[in-house]
Amino acid sequence: MLSSDSDEKGVNEVMSFSLGMILAVFMIGVLMLLVEIFVTGFGIFGVLGIGAVLASLIMAGATVGQVGLAVGLAVFLSLAAGFWAYRRIKSNQSLLWRGLILTDSTSSEKGYLSHQDKEQLRGKIGISLTQLRPAGTIEIDGNRVDAVTEGNFINSGEQVVVQDVTHGRVIVRVQKTKEESLT
Question: Quick one: 140 exposed, middle or buried, by C-beta within 10 A (0-12, 13-18, 19+)?
Answer without folding.
Answer: buried
